[in-house]
From TrEMBL:
Keyword tags: DNA-binding, Transcription, Transcription regulation
Superkingdom of the source species: Bacteria
InterPro entries, sorted: AraC-bd (IPR003313), Homeodomain-like_sf (IPR009057), HTH-like (IPR037923), HTH_AraC (IPR018060), RmlC-like_jellyroll (IPR014710), Tscrpt_reg_AraC-type_HTH (IPR020449)
TM ranges: none
GO molecular function, one term: sequence-specific DNA binding
SMART domains: HTH_ARAC (SM00342)
Native source species: Paenibacillus rhizovicinus
Domain HTH araC/xylS-type: 186-284
Name listed for the protein in its UniProt record: AraC family transcriptional regulator
Alphabetical list of Pfam families matching this protein: AraC_binding (PF02311), HTH_18 (PF12833)
Length: 288
């Protein structure tokens, strides 16, 4: 049985999917932001940094920017895969932390540092599980208050992560010097993240990263299972979704902002990936 998946709520640089359901999942990807994934139901495994870990009810994953991971939850007729995802731009949250230097140091470590542990098992009564419900309540606040409320709830989340979830592993991971090193494919994704808003050619990426165009394309496809062109299109569609949901900019302007695209090409690309036109998407997300 396939479940209908609601459109993600997007608060500018924050994307929140609450108790999303599907009958299975297998995706290999990375985000330019930080992702928190909590699993209510379902069993499978996650591949992270070349190692495999079991996941199931109560699993919490903390994934750093550009960190490739494979979440594999096979079909089970008796159990749906139910999870909450929170993905956000780490730079935006850092701005909220200026008055809290201790919390900021902790945050910068779990954002950029070498972590000894990123996968945890939480009990149902853990306060963090309840806090995810609080994020859901923020959705029902007046639109002009949601962004601020979301930021304040994020501060509470970080405090819980600092005092409970990461508490035991923190001292061990903080002894590992230096930031986490990016792999080749993560470096490619970072370059795309910085440049996808304008037109560019494969040769330009290859030259900037000191790789041949063939090696770059082959490396990306072998590591992610998708072509680099598909990744760029998906990133542009994701940015378009945020602009459609949070602004009243005309389609022509949005098309230009996400890659210097023509309106006709942008609309075709958007519908191919989302199944609806940009205007239909905007109407749906605003009704939600």
């Amino acid at each position: 049985m396939a479940y209908v998946v609601p459109i993600a709520y997007e608060f500018g640089s924050f994307i929140f999917n609450h108790k999303r359901k599907s009958d299975q999942s297998r995706y290999y990807h990375a985000h330019p932001g930080i992702e928190l994934l909590y699993i209510y139901e379902g069993e499978g495994e996650v591949m992270l940094d070349g190692s495999h870990y079991p996941i199931g009810q109560g699993t919490l994953l903390w994934l750093q920017p550009y960190q490739l991971h494979l979440v594999d939850v096979p079909f089970n007729a008796d159990i749906a895969y139910v999870r909450t995802n929170l993905t956000f731009d780490p730079h935006v949250l850092a701005a909220y932390l200026a008055p809290f230097p201790g919390l900021l140091r902790f945050y910068e470590h779990i954002w950029k540092g070498n972590l000894s542990k990123q996968i945890f098992t939480l009990q149902a009564e853990n306060p963090l599980v309840g806090l995810l419900e609080e994020f859901q309540l923020v959705l029902h606040e007046p639109p002009e208050e949601r962004e601020e409320s979301f930021g304040l709830t994020m501060l509470k989340l970080l405090r819980l992560l600092q005092r409970s979830v990461f508490k035991e592993s923190l001292s061990q991971s903080q002894t590992q010097s230096g930031p986490r090193a990016l792999k080749h494919v993560e470096t490619i994704m970072e370059w795309v993240e910085q440049h996808y808003r304008r037109p560019f050619r494969l040769d330009e990426i290859a030259e900037a990263l000191f790789l041949s165009p063939y090696h770059l394309s082959h490396l990306f496809k072998a590591s992610t299972g998708m072509t680099l062109s598909d990744h760029i299109r998906l990133r542009r569609v994701r940015e378009a979704c945020s602009l459609l949901a949070n602004t009243s900019k005309p389609i022509q302007e949005i098309a230009a902002e996400v890659g210097g695209l023509s309106s006709s090409y942008f609309c075709q690309m958007f519908k191919r990936h989302k199944g609806v036109t940009p205007e239909e998407y905007r109407k749906t997300v605003r009704k939600a």
